[in-house]
Design goal:
Helices cover about 20% and strands about 35% of the residues. With about 130 residues, the protein is α+β, with helices and mostly antiparallel strands.
């Protein structure tokens, strides 16, 4: 996984980290996905009370996929394959974070944590590992 380590300067690394932290500030929860070679991806998710789930998967700083799906219960993983994709986009970290955060909140929904608790403020997000 290359999120700007070898061929990027410190400023670019800081910019990428800043964009990923914006996801957390907007209610996303995230975790690294590890494999035999170490970290293979970063996955960020934001559930909504209106049966909507937003997901951002970062494989590389230039290889990011995002989608919004409806018809799922964000707290019940068994419903994830039953949703309908409402929006999907691929691109860079900067482009995808901006596009995802530009989406309107789904009708009648507000973000919820995996625990089912509402996301009240950016400061309630706590610390999240970012590169």
């Amino acid at each position: 996984m290359d999120l700007a380590v070898d061929d990027a300067d410190t400023r670019e690394r800081e910019e990428l980290a800043r964009h990923l932290k914006r996801l957390v500030e907007h209610g996303f929860e995230g975790a690294p996905v590890t494999g035999a070679e170490g970290i293979e991806a970063l996955v960020y998710r934001r559930g909504w009370t209106s049966a909507v789930l937003d997901v951002v998967v970062v494989v590389d700083r230039r290889d990011v996929d995002a989608l919004r799906t409806s018809g799922v219960n964000p707290l019940d993983p068994s419903t994830l394959g039953q949703g309908t994709v409402q929006w999907r986009q691929s691109g860079t970290v900067v482009d995808i974070v901006a596009a995802m955060l530009a989406l309107d909140a789904p009708a009648g929904g507000f973000p919820i944590r995996t625990s089912g608790q509402p996301v009240l403020t950016a400061s309630s997000c706590g610390e999240l590992w970012t590169p």
